[in-house]
Design brief:
The chain is α/β, with parallel strands linked by helices. The chain has helices spanning about 5-25, 45-60, 75-85, 105-110, 125-130, 140-150, 170-180, 195-200, 245, 260-280, and strands at about 5, 35-40, 60-70, 90-95, 160-165, 185, 205, 225, 230, 240, 255. The protein is built from 10 helices and 11 strands. A 6-stranded parallel β-sheet has the order 1-11-8-7-5-6, with helices on both faces. Strands 3-2-4 form a 3-stranded parallel β-sheet, with helices on both faces. The mean pLDDT is about 95.
């Protein structure tokens, strides 16, 4: 039976560290501040924003919420971002995704000052990660790395498989694992014989967004499994990209869903805000 990697406990410890850093910033007259922009009334996005606000308050980070109507235009949103870029009291800017269809999301993300891009999605920050000089690392991959660190997983020389090639998770995750000296393979929808690739992995990071796609029988006995997926199964319950019930019997360590990667993503966002404030 695999060891459960408790994202809630690890994130709590990280937030405590962030709170100490924030106190040090306040002592020198800097109040870390995160501006959150939410466009429209998507219920899931509203929940995410509320949770981020709670964690920010716990860490002593001030938040400024900007709620815009569902009919907001690209130009209107770019104007808000421009004001936040120019506001010296704002350390981090987070535009909650997804955005309504009429908005050019790429243009909006590109308009955020890279020094305030605490999500780590700006091409400049992704490029810096690529050359090994990161400013901000995207929060979910950073959270995954901190979980691997907490479990004492040996990454140097290990075979790591990242399933999913998104710019938000898969690609930056592969870069972080490479930087930790793992031998990295990326799998995706066109990969031939995914079960064979999974069977070779000492470390598996699943980030495809398909419920229980990766079967426990595929997993190498003793492997460390980080399940980034958060899906609604046919039974209506939350589940990951890995079939947890069978995987827990073979893996050495595994993240549950919920309670695994999710809390780490928000904690790492707060870590990035504190980091931005330290550079003010």
């Amino acid at each position: 039976m695999a060891e459960l990697i408790d994202g809630r406990a690890i994130s709590k410890a990280l937030l405590a560290d962030v709170a100490k850093t924030v106190e040090q910033h306040k002592a020198r007259g800097v109040q870390p501040k995160l501006a959150v922009v939410l466009v429209g009334d998507d219920p899931a996005s509203a929940v995410y924003v509320r949770n981020k606000g709670k964690r920010a308050a716990e860490a002593g980070i001030e938040t400024a919420d900007h709620r815009l109507g569902a009919d907001t235009t690209t130009e209107g949103l770019l104007g808000v971002v421009r004001e936040l870029n120019e506001d010296p009291s704002v350390d981090g800017i987070l535009v909650q995704l997804p955005l309504p269809p009429q908005i050019d999301a790429d243009a909006v993300l590109l308009s955020i000052d890279p020094a305030k891009d605490v999500d780590g999605f700006h091409p400049e920050n992704l490029g810096r990660l690529m050359i090994g000089e990161p400013r901000f690392v995207a929060c979910t991959p950073l959270g995954c790395m901190k979980m691997l660190e907490a479990t004492g997983t040996e990454l140097s020389g290990a075979k790591a498989l990242v399933v999913g090639r998104s710019t938000i998770v898969g690609k930056p995750m592969a870069q972080l694992l490479l930087a930790a000296n793992a031998t990295v393979t990326m799998a995706h929808s066109r990969t031939r014989d995914l079960p064979a690739a999974v069977a070779e992995a000492d470390v598996l990071v699943a980030a495809v967004g398909r419920p229980r796609m990766i079967q426990g029988a595929w997993i190498k006995p003793g492997a460390t499994v980080i399940d980034v997926g958060i899906n609604r199964g046919e039974d209506g319950k939350l589940c990951g990209d890995v079939d947890f019930a069978t995987a827990v019997e073979r893996a050495g360590a595994i993240t549950p869903v919920p309670g695994g990667v999710g809390p780490m993503t928000i904690a790492c966002l707060m870590h990035n805000v504190a980091l931005a404030a330290s550079r003010r």
